[in-house]
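[step 3/7] fold_predict: job queued, chain A
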Amino acid sequence: MAVQEARQGGEHIGAHGGGCTCGDCPHGAREGHRRAVAAFLVKRDGFAAGEGLPAAVAHSASASRQWVSDELTQSADTVAERGRAEGGAWLARLWHRTALAVWGGFVVLLLVQALTAIGAGWTAARTAGLLAALVVAGTLSAASWFHRARGGALAPVIGEDNRLSTSRAVAVSWVLFVAYAVLVLAGRLAAASDHAERDALISGLELARGAGVVTVLAVVCAIAVLVRRVVGLRVLGQRLQKIPADRPRAADLLTDDAGRGTFADIQYVAISAVALVFAAVRLARRPDQLPDLPWGLAVVVLISAATYLAGKYAEGGRPVILSVVRSREAGDLDAPIRTGDDIEIRGAGFVPPGAQTADRLSRMVVRIGPVNVHVPLVPVTGGFSNPTDTLLTVPVPVDVEPGRVEVQVVTAAGVETNACVVDVTD
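[step 4/7] structure written:
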């Protein structure tokens, strides 16, 4: 459908309607991005099939490759610009959805309280639970409005790379739950008229009752702060490549920057969710004290958090050049590297996670001596054959002086590889 839309051109375009592409409204930004992507796919697949080349460059393989790469780069820049506009518009309207989700949760709690009260009767604990939920929902709604340009209530869990942070999401979940539990106890304490009942509620806040929950809360909050520090230092030390996303997605909680599921994130979210459900059930059964999370379950959560932190230390790594050789096509004679020849740079980590889009790939540069050579985009049906994560092919420009020169790759994340020395002859 997207390809058909692009080939139809500008048909069915209405002012701020279903075909709005002006960018003045959220729908227009979304439609403009969709059409830009469709046009880019048509152009890329057409060039891959050998269509659309002007006669002036068709006779030269290198000239046609460079012309195609430049055309695709310009189209990819348009897609990236529309994508950023669409991401900003999506964040701006997200605060409505977060506020609706918060109040939807309050309504669900109200229905559950009303249904479970049938036969058992309404109690002061149910009233305190609803009032605590009302306070939490109101606070989140106010925060959502103040951060409406950055995703509403989700703003605190959106990382610097514009993705949802797993560590922050888990920490925020535990903070909200503990705050809700304390508010329930505060509501019951305010409504209690008997001295013995008030003393029992105050004793429910003692550390001996909620040591497991307090320990888990402290650890997950520390993990959230430590992970941010670890990632920042690894990026500055060029041991981790980070590419910003156009907008956050729910899948970010379970995947890496490339969208692949990661064990460390999945197990951390799953175990934390199970522990939160258990703690919520304990609070519902014993609303007169902090949930007494068993130490066995608390230790499981701590092990999960340690695994997640170890995964953050283990991920990433600097890109590396293993070798540089002269590119040889069928029928060519073996020869040394000369100016004008294509060279193959073999290694690993040339394409950072999340940099598989054309606008990111077009930012890759190979430094051959003092000359910076932009890596050409070579399209094939459904993607690109150059550049790849393990292999780059670039021409040696005539400005390179013969002799021993260093070759380095600068990735889309701005990270430089090691230098590899090659001999260039006349």
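[step 5/7] annotate
The radius of gyration is 29 Å.
Strands lie at 320-326, 337-338, 342-348, 365-368, 371-374, 378-380, 383-386, 391-395, 403-410, 420-425.
exit 0
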